[in-house]
Write a structure and sequence with these properties.
Number of domains: 2
Number of strands: 7
Structural class: alpha+beta
Strand content: 5-15%
Order of helices and strands: EEEEEHHHHHHHEEHHHH
Largest sheet: 5 strands, antiparallel
Strand order of the largest sheet: 4-3-2-1-5
Distance between the termini: 59 Å
């Protein structure tokens, strides 16, 4: 099967001279010759540990073995939420344990889908909604965590929000006039991208390696807004969440 740049690969045998154990996760940088590829390995600080020229006999490509689809992804998220309720820690632990028990290719495929959905929600319109829900406050980090929350609400809420951010108005309950369904700090710890990486750590005994090339920062899309007039863009959200 075809091997592409940025594909994740698993080292078949240890390479002692570079202190790389069998099972270490790497990524394809480029094809350098017939059946030969440049593969990058990183340390636990996301620094390049080695760049080696390897043949396909020396590694496996998890993508080739994974069968997970986006429909499978949503089924896992929604079923886990239904079974374990809204408590963030309970939900995160249940999902993490389920992912950790999966074959590694399926776990990595789950993570790829999560990252793609996360990037797809990097839109000015959703950032405006997050800004209003935060009562005129939502940093870049806060918007990242907001997208973590959005994915874990399930397929319908996710795609409805992409089509119309005001559809979120009924999905964030209020307690004494303030939103309470999530805080940005909570979702930094319990978000979907953190969960699948923790599941990888549990399954393999290694920290999930961060490769800059695998999930580069997405380019934000949509129509930029002005903080002074954002309340006019989504009046239903503004009426519910903004202080008078």
């Amino acid at each position: 099967m075809t091997i592409f740049p940025n594909d994740l690969v698993i080292l078949n045998d240890a390479i002692s001279r570079h202190q790389l154990a069998s099972g270490t996760l790497g990524r394809i940088r480029r094809e350098v010759g017939p059946a030969e590829f440049e593969v990058e390995f990183v340390d636990d600080r996301a620094r390049t540990a080695a760049i080696l020229h390897l043949t396909p006999a020396q590694f496996s490509v998890p993508r080739h073995d994974a069968k997970m689809t986006e429909a499978d992804f949503w089924h896992i998220v929604e079923t886990t939420k239904t079974q374990h309720g809204p408590n963030l820690q309970v939900l995160a632990d249940a999902l993490m344990n389920q992912l950790a028990a999966m074959p590694l290719p399926e776990l990595l495929a789950f993570g790829d889908i999560a990252e793609r959905l996360h990037d797809n929600a990097y839109r000015w319109e959703l950032w405006a909604a997050c800004f209003i829900i935060g009562n005129l406050g939502c940093s870049d980090d806060g918007f990242y965590d907001f997208r973590e929350w959005l994915i874990e609400q399930g397929q319908a809420i996710y795609y409805n929000a992409l089509a119309d951010p005001e559809s979120l108005v009924d999905h964030i309950p209020l307690v004494q006039g303030e939103f309470s369904n999530f805080t940005f700090g909570d979702w930094e710890q319990y978000g979907i991208t953190h969960i699948y990486r923790d599941a990888y750590d549990i399954q393999t005994g290694r920290e999930f390696p961060i490769f800059a090339g695998i999930h580069p920062l997405p380019q934000i899309t949509g129509e930029r807004w002005d903080e002074r007039t954002v309340h006019l863009k989504y009046p239903k959200l503004a009426a519910r969440f903004m202080s008078r």
